[in-house]
Amino acid sequence: MKMKFKVLLIITLTVFCHFISNAQKTNYSMNGIWEYVDNRSEESFSTSQKSWRIVFEDTTLIVTLFKDRINGVILLLKSGFQNKKKSEIDSLNVSVLANVGAYYTEVFGDEIHKNNFVKKYSIMTYDYLYFDDTNLEMDGGKLAIFNKVNIVPREVYLFLLKKGIEDKKNYTKYLLKSNCYRVIYSLKSIIHFTPNNKQSQQYLLKGDEVEILEEKLVKGTSWLKIRYYGGKTIEGWIKKTDVE
């Protein structure tokens, strides 16, 4: 299943590069969560599956959920800029990928050899790249764009947890690198109904991962409104000092 998605991704990028030229770059950071938006009205991709890119520095995690919103595929990519067209590349040393360059390039992380090289069929290059605080375009918006979002839906988070257990990998750590997810640092964090007010009978333990919904300063103390996806979804307020 993962191989089919790799082939589909490469084919899609081949279509991208048929339309585009004159690479454009910006100084904005690509770090964050990007939700795929399908502009093809005659296609039904957006109703059959949803896709997100979670970017942190030189790593991109692509998570795609199928129509049932339970099953899906996860791909890990290494990314950066280099100065050769795809047609000029036979193999690539991923250590050459940098913060600037002529072509934004991504390679499948699980196909990087021990010598740090990857073969041509695992390399994707973009002739056109534009992104700012809210939008990411790799083809001028002719086929698809990505909108920046603060959080992923609950089903995406749960899927990352489930696949992480199956694959023995920590996929949620890429979410934790954004400002919207944190890990409980205190041994025990009491959940409050409102900031600096009545405590609930619920609490979180050290190591629990929470989604940050809001921050508020009350009488000199910073509070975070959080959502926790455990056996059941829990929302409430905790002290900011309780998280890493």
UniProtKB/TrEMBL annotation:
It comes from the Bacteria. Keywords: Signal. Residues 170-243 form the GW domain. The keyword NADP does not apply. Residues 1-23 form the signal peptide. Pfam families: GW. Coiled coil: none annotated. This is GW domain-containing protein. It comes from Pseudarcicella hirudinis.
